Amino acid sequence: MVKLGELNSVKAARVFADYCVTQGWSVQAVVEDAQRAAIYVDESQLQPVNQALQEFLHNPGHPRYDAAAWQRSQTVSGFGGGQLWSGLQFKDVSGPFTVLVLLLALLVYGWQQVAPQQASAALGIFVQFAAINVQESWRWFSPALLHFSLTHLVFNLMWWWLLAGQFERRLGTGQLVSLALSSALIANVAEYLLVGPHFGGLSGVVYALFGYFWWAGRLNPAQGLYLEKGMVAFMLIWMLLGFLDVLWVSMANWAHLGGLLAGCGWAWLLRHKAARPE
């Protein structure tokens, strides 16, 4: 995708991008700061989108744009009728690895309800470090599939579906597999070494995706993977509250931090990688 131009209103840029999507054009509004957003477009559609942009600037209050925004609101989800973050468009986000991990987590949770001790013994790191041999090296990854309450499961899978799905669609299945496995390893080893073996959950990988979206939005906004400042603040405050131990739930804080740092590192490694066209 190529940068068409900038608008000095984030809201206007999103309205225009929504209109373009309803016309079948690959257009994204990338927030650059609180007052500006860039318009990115597929190079093959540059001419019609540029013409549409001139028409929009001439008459941004035309009812066609309100109609497009309403149409998009039927397929693009948000909380409270608005978007908490930009760039996460809930259409065609389910890549094969995103779906596979979601289904595995659901199956493992079902197994935990039927035979909790057996499931935990099979997938958890409930052994001494020296006892984990080469044949059991998968234990450094498998705790990501363990969840100890329905709330824990739903919360992690919701974020996995939204973030991993968008990542896989834009950067490919191979990149998502690499990020997920490496961040699961880093998160699980950090939690095991600094706290102990009794933990589980996909949140370390979810925090890696948070970290990637956070820094990719700064390092390579053309990828279209980014978080607004409000979501970044929520992510960091939630992790801080976990370390302060003031929440009503027990959290794998070092896994969260390890995952976050892993995701930021991946954003730096892929800072020059172009995203797939929409």
TrEMBL record:
Keyword list, A-Z: Cell inner membrane, Cell membrane, Hydrolase, Membrane, Protease, Transmembrane, Transmembrane helix
Chief location bin: membrane
Recorded coiled-coil stretches: none
Short name of one Pfam family: Rhomboid_N
Keyword Hydrolase: yes
Uppermost EC category: hydrolase
Residue intervals of the Peptidase S54 GlpG peptidase N-terminal domain: 1-77
Subcellular location per the Swiss-Prot or TrEMBL entry: Membrane
Membrane spanning residue stretches: 93-112, 144-164, 176-195, 201-219, 231-248, 254-270
Molecular function (Gene Ontology), one example: peptidase activity
Peptidase S54 rhomboid domain span: 136-271
Annotated membrane topology: Multi-pass membrane protein
NCBIfam families recorded: rhombo_GlpG
Name of protein: Rhomboid family intramembrane serine protease GlpG
Organism of this sequence: Alkalimonas mucilaginosa
